Amino acid sequence: MSRNVYCQHLKQDAEGLDFQLYPGELGKRIFDNISKQAWAEWQKKQTMLINEHKLNMMDPAARKFLEEKMEAYLFEGVEPTIEGYVPPKK
């Protein structure tokens, strides 16, 4: 059964995540306030960031960098800067 959340990224009610995908307090915030659609959009950007910056996900600094970008994107609507990527106009 799907659950709806008020997505803080999309600013509308949308289908919520099925389970908490990210650990800790931030993960709980994402589960409670971010839709599947917004999470999927973030996943694409995260992949671009990992590739562009050649991030090693075993490196705590790389994980912290991504977490900051994720939080800014999902909760503050801040587009991450990705070389050569222009977000589609809304």
Automatic annotation (TrEMBL):
InterPro entries noted in UniProt: Fe_traffick_prot_YggX (IPR007457), Fe_traffick_prot_YggX_sf (IPR036766)
Keywords (A to Z) from UniProt: Iron
GO process terms (BP): cellular response to oxidative stress
Entry-linked Gene3D superfamilies: Fe(II) trafficking protein YggX
Recorded GO CC terms: cytosol
The organism's place on the tree of life at top rank: Bacteria
Keyword Isomerase in annotation: no
SUPFAM superfamilies: YggX-like
Record has Zinc as a keyword: no
Transmembrane regions: none
GO MF annotation list: iron ion binding
Family: Belongs to the Fe(2+)-trafficking protein family.
Cited PANTHER family: FE(2+)-TRAFFICKING PROTEIN-RELATED (PTHR36965)
Protein function: Could be a mediator in iron transactions between iron acquisition and iron-requiring processes, such as synthesis and/or repair of Fe-S clusters in biosynthetic enzymes. Necessary to maintain high levels of aconitase under oxidative stress.
Name of the protein in its database record: Probable Fe(2+)-trafficking protein
Organism: Alteromonas aestuariivivens
Lineage, uppermost ranks: Bacteria, Pseudomonadati, Pseudomonadota, Gammaproteobacteria, Alteromonadales
